[in-house]
Design brief:
Distance between the termini: 14 Å
Number of strands: 2
Mean pLDDT: 82
Strand content: 5-15%
Order of helices and strands: HEHE
Helix content: 25-40%
Shape: globular
Number of domains: 1
Structural class: alpha+beta
Low-confidence stretches: none
Radius of gyration: 11 Å
Length: 56
Amino acid sequence: MRDDHEFFQALFGNPIDDPLVYDSYRIDEEINLKIFHKMSVMVDIVTYDCYVEFAA
């Protein structure tokens, strides 16, 4: 998956306490669909607990 900091920051509501999105964020159904529409990647959130983590 390519780096797209602005997309993920907006996706998780521009977290004030984590402006650089260094934390891990759980992927729910809505977020999974948004990532799919933007990047054509979908994860199995039914079978697995899935998270997005941004690392520099």
